[in-house]
Amino acid sequence: MPLTRRQLIARVAAVGGLQAASAVMGLLGVNGAALAAAENYASLPTASVGKGASVVVIGAGIGGLVSAYELQKAGFNVTLLEARDRVGGRNWTVRGGDRVAYTDGSAQVAQFDDGFYLNAGPGRIPSHHQLMLGYCRELGVELDVLVTTSRNALVRPDLSQPPIQIRQAVNDSRGHFSELLAKAVNRNALDQELSAADRSHLLSFLKTWGDLSDKLQYLGSARSGYKVWPGAGDQRAQKNDPLPLQTLLNPALTTALMIDEYPEFSHTILKHKGGMDRIPKAFAQRLQGVVRLGAEVRSLHNHADFVEVGYRDLKSGSEQRIRADYVISALPLPLLAKVDSNLSAPVRKALGAVQFGYANKVAWQAPRFWERDYQIYGGLSFINQEASGLWYPSGGFNQAQGVLVAAYNNGETARKFGEKSLAEQIEISRQAVELLHPGHARELGKPLAVAWSKIPYALGPWLNHEVAEPDYSLLNQAQGRVYLTSDGLAHSGIGIWQESAAAAARRVVRQLFERSQASPVKQTA
Q: What is the pTM assigned to this prediction?
C-alpha cells in the first residue's frame, strides 16, 4: 500500500529531521510555514495594534489560550468562551476527586491519592517544540525531564513467548542485520559498486555497530544484557544467548525497536512539573476577567460590521449573545461543524469532511514493582494485545507508589477498545500488566480509563489525517470576520500536537494584527 502524504512526512522526519521533512513538504505542495520551526517564538510584533477592537475566542484549549493571550497583549478587547468548567481542552490532567464523564452517560471519579495524577491528553513536550517551550519560559512554568525510552523495558510481540527486554531486542536485531549485510558486502552482492576501500570501511563499521566477531559473525553481545551480571568473588558475567533472527523479524516488534528514533520520542523530552495542565492554568492566570467557563457556543453568524456568537450559560441555563468585531474559533474542526453558522457552504462541507482519530489511556495507582523487580525507571513497554503499551512514571523514583499507564493506544485498536465497557477496558489493561509482569496485576488499584472519543467537548484526541486532511487552502482563509484556528490546520504530520495548535493560533493572530492595522474597524459595543 502506498504511503499517505502524512506517513511519508513522518517517516522522513524520523530519519532526516525537520529540515528533511520541510523539503519533502515543499515537494508535496505542503506549506512548510506551518511547521513549528517556521513560527519563531519571538516573531509576533510587540506593539499595541488592537486599539480596543473586540474579539471573541471560542474554545480555551491551547490554541484558544494562545490566541487570547497574544491578542490581549496587543491591545484587543478579548472574551474567551469555554464550555467546560476548566481551561486546557485536550491538555487535561486528572487528579483524585476529578470526574471523568462520557457522552454515553457513564462516569468515573478518579481515586488517586494526593500528588498522583494522569495526564489524560498530551504527556510530553519534545525539545523541538520551541513555541510551547517559549511560553513555558514566559509564563514561568517549571519543567522536568520525561523518560520516554528505557532499555530495561519489555516487549512481547508473540504472546506464546515470554517478554523480551528491549535492550536485547534492539542489540540482537542490530547484530543479526549487521552479519547479514557483512556477508553481502564480502560477496560484493550489493546493488551499487563499492571500492575495495569502501567495502573495508563498511565492514569495519558493521563489526563495531553489530558487535560482530573477527569472522563477522553475531554470537551475542554484552549490549544485549546478561543472564548473570558480573559481580564480586566468583560471580562471572554470562551474556544472554542471542535471540533467533526469526523472532526479531516479527512486525509487532518494530515500534519497540524504533521508538526513540522518532523526533517526538527522542531525548531530550520535557514535561510540566506537577502535571501538563500547568501551562493552560498559567495562561488562565494572565487572562483573568477574560475567560467565561460553562459557555457552550451554539451559533456563529457573520455580518458586514460584526460577528454574533450565541452560547448557553451552563450554570444558569440561560441563552446569551455576544457581538464582536472579530471571532477566532479554536474549536476542533469536527465540533465547529456542529455549530449553527452562516459560514459558506464550501466551508461547512470542508469542516464536515474531517474526522477525529481515536486514543485511549487506562491508568492505575500501584506499588512500583517495575522499579523494584525490573529496574525500569520511566519509558514504555509494548505488547501485542489491545492495551498496546505500558508507560511508566518518570518521577517520584523509589517512592512507595506511582501511576502506571497500562493502556496507551490509538487508531483502529483504540476505536475498538473504546467501544468496550469500562469494566472490559480495565480488565484488558490488567491482563496486559500480567502478561508483561507476571504476578503483579494483583497489586494494581484505583483504575481510571479515558477514551477520548467519548469525552464531551472533545470527541477525539486529534484529526484522522488518514481518512481526510482538512482543506487547508480554504479553512486557513478569513471567513468574513471569522478566523479558524486548530491543531488540525497546522500540518502536523511529524507529531507536533500542542505545538501545532500554538503555531496555527499565532498565524491567525498575525493575520488579525495585519487586518487591524490596514483597516481600523468601528468597534462593536
A: 0.88
